[in-house]
User: What shape does this take?
Amino acid sequence: MRIWIAVIEVVAIGLLLGWGSDAITLDGERTVYTLKCADGQWQAESCGGHVLAGDRFRFRALRAHAEVVFWTVGASGPSGKFSDCKISDGRNWACPAQAQTVQTITLEMRKGLPMPSSSGQTKAFHAVSKWRWHLARLGMPIGNSADN
Assistant: This one.
């Protein structure tokens, strides 16, 4: 009986770590968790004030259609869609700039990470891991830096 309890605990811890690191996601889907800098300005990856949980941007790559659908989680606005995209999988894709580019944070994902636009066509963002975003959302201290 103790062995089964230990196995269940190990599996539960593994699932929790996978969820917290975003290693476990729906196929073809990726969420980017962002921070806001309150009472200060961003200086590269550091906030001069204190950080707050920002928007969550979700992307779903549809390889069969060469499309990437995107939306801001919890926002009342409509979702957007990129077409003519080059998609390897949900964590590796690139799309050409389109009219809806200004609604989101990236035109490209590499290894599950959003690539910032050097031309300023997309929204600026400061991303963090899922578990740090949830801590910030709860008002817990997570430091003043973002991952990107």
Notes: The chain has one domain: 26-137. Residues 26-137 form one domain. The two ends are 46 Å apart (CA to CA). Residues 118 and 124 are 10 Å apart (CA to CA).
